[in-house]
Amino acid sequence: MPLLAWLILAGRRGQVLLWSLLLVLVLGWRDGLALVTLGLALEQLVRRRWQLAGLAAGLSLGWLWLLVAWIQPPLLARYPGLNAGASRYGYLGDSLPEIIRTLLREPWRLLHHVDWGGAVVYLLLISVPLLPFWRRASLPALVAGVPLILVNLLSESGAQRSLVHHYSLPLAVIGVVAAIDGLASAKDNRMSWRRLAWAAACWVALAKPWFFTGPYLDRLGLTADSRVAMQRIASDAAVATTSYLVPHLSHRSMVMFPSDPALGLHALEKERGISVLLLHPGEPGWASQTTLQERLLQEARDQGWTCDRFNSGLTLCQRAPD
3-class SS at 103? Predict the structure, then answer.
């Protein structure tokens, strides 16, 4: 996000070389940011800065083509589960070219698949915090968010319209820049504390502060047991654990949380190389299930894995070395 803000600033200053360098860096950060840089190209078109617009559009479209034609095919062949588009945009097609063709030829499909009620709520949520600051001068900056917003609206996954997730994060930068443009264009330079308090309250609400009185504190009892368990796991072991412990077991070739009921322990061993289970059936975490974790732990015991259950309910099972 700081790079994105710097990129926007470079565009405002007309720094072509810095603009190009930052475009490459931002595009390399995450594949989805190509939608944001494409939006910045649209902004530069609105501002009639043709060179900056051409650079942003060329690099963005080139990066998307590279992803679709060269990078994604071998990855998807090996890991089909990575193809989020198949589940989120399947009603439009299986590939980016096919999706574009469907949108042009059969736009009526959107009537049946787009969550229009959710779309209105989504647009309201991303605009309400900063809406009091936006003016006519804010419109060019807001154009930069159009491609990302459209893609999120077309998705059949509600997660892309939930501000809890990362999908809309770049819109925060774009919205703040648009607010700065609005403030700069105002004739009255006095700051409205009511508007500022409103924006601050909205941002605080987005952080879900009540989680600190519930879900987060509920897991404090796992802290000691999870630390002991993780110290027993080899740094190169492939681990299946709960979603909230995954970040603490990174820096290894494989770490995952079990979410597919169809995959048993044998499949996890053969397909993912899993040799360690660190599960908590009492609180299975996001996308997992108590019954699934209990079944995996029982299969591990039946196959002679070494299992230890802690007082908190956390269970560590490790396969014996070959």
Answer: helix
3-state secondary structure of 219: coil
CA–CA dist 144, 176 (Å, integer) = 12
> Is there a contact between 245 and 278 (Cβ–Cβ < 8 Å)?
yes
pLDDT digits (tens, 9 = 90+) for 234-246: 999 999 999 999 9
Domain ranges, ordered by start, for the chain? 2-206, 217-318
Q: Could you give the CA distance from residue 277 to residue 299 in angstroms, rounded to a whole number?
A: 11
pLDDT digit string, tens, across residues 15-64: 999 999 999 999 998 878 999 999 999 999 999 999 999 999 999 999 99
Which residue blocks in the chain are alpha helix, DSSP H? Answer: 2-13, 16-29, 33-46, 50-66, 72-78, 84-88, 96-105, 109-113, 116-127, 139-143, 146-154, 169-185, 193-206, 215-218, 223-231, 265-272, 290-302
pLDDT digits (tens, 9 = 90+) for 152-181: 999 888 888 988 888 899 999 999 999 999
pTM over 0.85: no
* Strands 255-256 and 306-309, bridge-based pairing: unpaired
Q: Which tokens go with 224?
A: 């000691």
Q: Which amino acid is at 172?
A: A
Q: In Å, what is the CA distance from 274 to each residue of 32, 256, 260, 295? A: 29, 9, 15, 15
| Spatial CA neighbour of 40 closest among 10, 2, 64 | 10
| Closest-CA residue to 136 (of 193, 178, 192, 190) | 178
- Res. 81: pLDDT tops 70: no
Q: Which one, of 23, 95, 41, lies nearest residue 65 by Cα?
A: 95
Tens-digit pLDDT profile for residues 273-321 = 999 999 999 999 988 999 999 999 999 999 999 999 999 999 999 998 8
User: What is the distance between the alpha carbons of residues 9 and 6, in angstroms, rounded to a whole number?
Assistant: 5
Q: Residue 114 CB: number of other CB atoms within 10 A?
A: 15
